[in-house]
Amino acid sequence: MADADFTIERLKKRADFLACAQAPSCARGAVVVQARARPDGLDPSPLVRAGFTATKRVGGAVVRNRAKRRMREAARLLLPALAQPGFDYVFIARGGVTTRPWERLLDDVKSALIRLAAERDRAAPDPDRSARPPSVPSSQDD
C-alpha cells in the first residue's frame, strides 16, 4: 500500500472517545468503527487519530488486549488508504474479534471505513449543485 500524506496518532483521552461516540458509526462483523470530523482546523499538518477499545463483554484482560492488538494492526494497514485527514476514528471490539480469521477481520474494518466515507460524502452538500440555479423543465409543444 502507498504511504499516506498524513500522520496517524492514537486517541488517549476519554473526552475524545466520548466525542466519537456521538459521531456516525458502522458495525461490520466483529468490529464497530466510529468516525468524527475534528473541529480544530488550526493544525497545518494533516492528522488522523485512532483509538481502540474493548469492553468486558468481549472477555477478560488477556482477550481484550489481544482484540485491541488485532484492531491496531488492521488499522495500521488500512487507515493510510481509507482514512480522511482531520478525522478521529474509534475501533470497538465485538465478540469474536479474537477468533475471527485475519482476512475477514480486515474485510470488516475495510468495509466499515468505506461505508463511513460513503455516508460522509452523501451527507456533505455538493458545492457545484448549490451554485447552479434550479433547473426548470422546459415544455415542448408538439
Task: Furnish the topology, listing elements before pairings.
Layout (H helix, E strand, L loop, with lengths): L6 E4 L3 H8 L3 E4 L2 E7 L9 E7 L7 H22 L4 E7 L8 H22 L3 H5 L11
Parallel strand pairs: 1-4, 4-5
Antiparallel strand pairs: 2-3, 3-5
Helix pairs in contact: 2-3
Q: Could you walk me through the main structural features you see in this protein, from its secondary elements to its overall organization?
A:
The chain is an alpha/beta fold. The chain has a single domain (7-116), classed as Ribosomal Protein S5, domain 2. The chain has helices at 14-21, 61-82, 102-123, 127-131; strands at residues 7-10, 25-28, 31-37, 47-53, 87-93. The protein has a 5-stranded mixed sheet, sandwiched between helices. The mean pLDDT is 84.
Describe, in short, the structure shown:
This protein has 142 residues and is an alpha/beta fold. It is built from 4 helices and 5 strands, in the order βαβββαβαα.
Q: Rough shape?
A: globular
CATH fold call: Ribosomal Protein S5, domain 2
Question: End-to-end span in angstroms?
Answer: 58 Å
Structural class: alpha/beta
CATH architecture: 2-Layer Sandwich
The parts where pLDDT drops under 50 for at least 5 residues are none
Spatially, the strands of the biggest sheet line up as 1-4-5-3-2
> Per DSSP, what share of the residues sits in E-state strands of 2 or more residues?
15-25%
List the total number of helices.
4
Number of domains: 1
Helix residue percentage: 40-55%
The helix-strand sequence is EHEEEHEHH
* Mean of residue pLDDT values: 84
How would a textbook summarize the main sheet?
A: 5 strands, mixed
Radius of gyration from the alpha-carbon trace, in angstroms:
19 Å
Top-tier CATH class: Alpha Beta
Number of strands: 5
